Amino acid sequence: MGRSRRRQDADLDALYEQVPDVGCKGKCHNTCGAIDMSPREHARIRDVAGVDIPEPSGENILAHVKGTWSCPALTADKRCSVYEWRPMICRLSGAVEGLPCPHDCAPSTGRLLTDAEAVTLLVKASAAGGGSPALAAADVHQHATKHHRAVRAILQRRRRPV
Predict the structure, then answer these.
(1) From the CB of residue 68, how many other CB atoms can be counted at a distance below 10 Å?
(2) Which partner for 125 in 26, 77, 88, 96 could form a disulfide, CB atoms 3.0-4.6 Å apart?
(3) Residue range 45-101, pLDDT digits in tens
(4) From start to end of the chain, where are the E strands?
């Protein structure tokens, strides 16, 4: 039997606290799309905020890169409607050396997480949210390998001014 939702939420919240706040200005909406997240992170967003964010697929990643698809959590004014419940991958944006914010949002501590710290947090969040730690590590590697061109294109888009 899996861990209780309350325990999963507490573990996820403890991991989220390890990510420095970047003082988001809400200008990165063009990078929001279908993302990987743990089953519990997905359920929290769906159940609490009423938003169902699809898992990445070749089709919606390509549409996102082309600019014809965006995250269903974005409001009409391009702000995140699930910001309080956003998953680890979204929290890491702008807080990691390999994902710096192109809009000058930065951790108030002045220190970005290393890429290795970010991967560790992603794996731990996946495990805490109902995924297997071994599978989470494999999923992070497989996703990065499988979608490296799309990920690179998204990162290049996010470095362009909006």
Answers:
(1) 9
(2) 88
(3) 999 999 998 887 778 777 777 777 788 899 999 899 999 999 999 999 999 998 888
(4) none
